[in-house]
Amino acid sequence: MTTGTPRPRAGRHEQACPSPVAALVMVALLAAPLTAQDRAWWDTLPPVEQPRITWSRQSVHVPMRDGVRLAVDLYLPTGADRAHPVATILHQTRYRRGLQFRDPAREAAAGPTAGLMPFLQAGYAVVIVDVRGTGASFGSRTTEFSPEEVRDGWDVLDWIVAQPWSDGVVGATGISYPGTTAELAGTLGHPALKAVAPLFSIYDFLPDVIRPGGIFLDPFFRSWASLVARMDANRLDPPGGPVTGVRPVDGPEGGRLLAEAIAEHAANASIHPQAAALTSRDARSPDGISLDAVSPHARYDTLSRRIPIYSYGGWADGFSGSQIARFVAQPSPGSRLLMGPWNHGGAWAYYPGQRPVRSQFDQSRELLRFFDWHLRGIPTGIEHEPPVWYFTTGSNQWKSAERWPVATRDTVVTLAGSREGGPVRRLAVNPTLGTGNQSRWNTILGGGAVAYRPRQASDTAGQLHLTVVPVLEAPLTLTGRARVRLELAAAAPGTTLFLYLEEVDATGAGALVAEGQVLAPGPGVIEVALLPVSHQFAAGRGIRVVVTRRDIDHFAADATTGTPVEVAAVRVTLPIEP
User: Fold this and answer.
1) 355 Cβ partners below 8 Å, 6+ apart?
2) Which of 143, 211, 338, 525 lies at a 20 to 30 A Cα distance from 224?
3) What's the helix, strand, coil split of the chain in %, to 5?
4) Which of the four pLDDT bands, split at 50, 70 and 90, describes residue 90?
């Protein structure tokens, strides 16, 4: 769940050895010039030059209610004091609040991480916290987002408003894990927290990340568990670079305190075996914590005071459905929804069938528009805008709406049906199939670009190609969740199925638009809601659905390899904009 933006890696398609046609198409796509077209609707003028400010940094330990000391970096604009108090942006992270550099000059000049410098430049105090059991904080972790970790948010807020430079007003934000900590802080009801902006973060742990469609996201949890274990032990990979590790707190005892804190992290539990054991909402961690005790979606029920929440995400993120689910379920006044063409973290834009490009959307300015209005009362234009903004790929334009879902009409297409005399289609297992190492599920572990090789009409091994529309006479815009209803004449319980909605060109090459997955309980009717998207299919292109039984790159394989799946009927429902 990191928020870095490494360079895009060479991906591999669901074919282990792509055909020459596929290779030629991909070369053509990669060679085609493309510039990001996701610049914000309000971004029509050059950015305003921010005045240069001076600031200070202080690294301290702050004790929690149970005595555990959390490492906190405080960044203050010069002049913030009791006579000139300022609002605060809070960022609670599992990924180290700051790094210590070997070069003293670089260490002294290091500003806030995670893209928070624009807030400091705009005159906010910035507080960055290592959550308990991580970074330079003391304590250990029995699970991620434990009740103790969530309650720490209240204690940190108490500490902030008690400082002489604080005006008593706080906003919280972050990407991915820190986005979830921001949202969880918002569920506490602390009077100082006035608005939160969880970006690209999880809303409902079980379907969003642990078992999308009921299938365990095994490779992600293996990799993420290894990554955070190295961080918690303050191990660098590779060693010997410009960074020595996590930043200790200030003072002559900082090094000793860091070593003591790192020693306590040795008791941290690994998330991988815990996540693998969570098969339902009733499941609990080894220390008895239920999913709903830590998942944001279940923590609002007893909250009497609702604050504005900015649900902010991208269509090409594995967590794309999370932002919409949050916005729909938590309609507090002032809340907003923003969905762009982005990967996890928003550094890259994904346009189906094209190579990835860097996003041109200014996230910092958008967040300042939100927080300046809700924390400072400064008119930014956001107070007059519709609450929903979303980007439609294909037509490449921003659109707004008063609510979600937006107005659409369902177009229903029946593709195959033995009851109407059509054949039963058999789907075998191809154990090599996967969506490659640049998929939406890769991007949640590093924020890398999203890219898929085009699927050719000849790529049929272990794949069921179903034509929804052979050739469109006019453009067609889909916004929302496409739904695929499968009537399975034969299927073993626990069969994994993966579904892909594609835009098909005249050569039969398909560009991935949306996807979904399901753990089938056996024969019968199942309906799969694909992840949400807004995309305009071009005139002259086709639409198809592809069904497979494996995504070996990202999901745990089932044990039904030798059991055939027979599909008797398929019905596809597309939410189409008028």
Assistant:
1) 29, 30, 32, 34, 451
2) 338
3) 25, 30, 50
4) very high
Query: Containing H/E element for 99?
Result: strand 99-101
Check whether residue 339 and residue 375 sit in a common domain.
yes
DSSP state of 456: P
Query: Quick check: is 176 catalytic?
Result: yes
Q: How confident is the model at residue 284 (pLDDT cuts 50, 70, 90)?
A: confident
Which residues lie across from 130 on neighbouring strands?
93
pLDDT tens for each residue of 148-206? 999 999 999 999 999 999 999 999 999 999 999 999 999 999 999 999 999 999 999 99
pLDDT at 23: 37
Mean pLDDT of 350-372: 97
Residues 458, 353 share a domain: no
Domain that holds residue 313: 55-401
Same domain? For 324 and 268 the reply is: yes
For the cut 50, the answer to whether the pLDDT of residue 514 exceeds it is: yes
Listed in sequence order, the residues at least 6 apart from 200 whose beta carbon sits closer than 8 Å to its beta carbon are 3, 175, 176, 179, 312, 313, 314, 317, 319, 323, 342, 344, 345, 346
The pTM (predicted TM-score) of the whole model is 0.91
Active-site residue identified among 59, 176, 320, 534: 176
- pLDDT confidence of residue 240: 78
**What distance in Å separates the CA atoms of residue 217 and residue 362, rounded to the nearest whole number?**
31
State residue 29's pLDDT score: 37
Position 215: which residue type?
I
317, 551, 553, 558: the catalytic one is 317
Specify the pLDDT at position 418: 40
Q: Are strands 166-175 and 86-93 parallel, antiparallel or unpaired?
A: parallel
Which is catalytic among the residues 61, 265, 344, 374?
A: 344
Cα distances (angstroms) measured from residue 380 to each of 41, 42, 365, 370: 14, 11, 10, 8
pLDDT interval class at 99 (50, 70, 90): very high
pLDDT confidence of residue 422: 59
* Cα(173)–Cα(177) distance, integer angstroms: 10
Same domain, 145 and 105: yes
Question: Active site includes 535?
Answer: no
CATH number of the domain that 559 lies in?
2.60.120.260
Q: What is the DSSP letter of 298?
A: G
Rg (CA), the chain: 24
Tell me how far the alpha carbon of residue 122 is from its chain's centroid.
Answer: 26
Identify the CA nearest to 15 among candidates 565, 553, 554: 553
Catalytic: 384?
A: no
DSSP H/E element including 341: none
> What distance in Å separates the CA atoms of residue 422 and residue 264, rounded to the nearest whole number?
64
